[in-house]
């Protein structure tokens, strides 16, 4: 029940290909499959698990909107400017179970979150910001669990529903 394991990090950088190559050449990751998001990304794998996601900082307005969370509209710019050395970890992701318990806990604590059905995958996601440091947190659940709980995503592959 609850958190199962840390799933991945997303690094936004001015040089996604160079970042990918460094992780692959120096640490032994392999570049592999990723869903279509409407902007370019690289997913790096250890075995069969994607662990590091890499994207270009400030690639497009669509990407900025897709990567935002509900509290981002409050005027704080969490995104990297894409200059050399400005690469940052955009979010941390945890694989989870018991979406009903998580939603009850988040709502009980007054945490603002958004819901998304991940593109052509079996994931249902909750996104929020940790308010002290601005770290975006992604919680991934099996889509079947969300459907059984009657959850309907605010975002899909085509944007806001």
Automatic annotation (TrEMBL):
Keyword Transit peptide: no
InterPro entries cross-referenced by the UniProt entry: Glyas_Bleomycin-R_OHBP_Dase, Glyas_Fos-R_dOase_dom, VOC_core
Signal peptide bounds: none
A family per Pfam: Glyoxalase
Domain VOC: 5-142
TM region(s), chain numbering: none
Gene3D superfamilies: 2,3-Dihydroxybiphenyl 1,2-Dioxygenase, domain 1
Keyword set, alphabetical order: Plasmid
Protein name: VOC domain-containing protein
Species, as recorded: Paraburkholderia largidicola
């Amino acid at each position: 029940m609850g958190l199962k394991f840390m799933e991945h990090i997303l690094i936004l950088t001015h040089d996604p290909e160079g970042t990918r190559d460094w992780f692959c050449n120096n640490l032994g990751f392999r570049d592999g499959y990723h869903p279509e998001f409407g902007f370019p990304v690289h997913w790096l794998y250890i075995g069969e698990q994607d662990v590091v996601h890499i994207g270009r900082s400030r690639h497009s307005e669509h990407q900025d909107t897709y990567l935002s969370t509900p509290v981002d509209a409050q005027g704080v710019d969490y995104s990297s400017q894409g200059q050399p050395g400005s690469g940052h970890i955009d979010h941390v992701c945890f694989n989870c179970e018991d979406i009903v318990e998580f939603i009850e806990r988040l709502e009980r604590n007054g945490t603002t979150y958004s819901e998304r059905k991940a593109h052509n995958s079996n994931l249902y996601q909750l996104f929020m910001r940790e308010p002290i440091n601005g770290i975006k947190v992604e919680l991934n659940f099996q889509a079947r669990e969300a459907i059984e709980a009657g959850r309907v995503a605010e975002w899909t592959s085509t944007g806001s529903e």
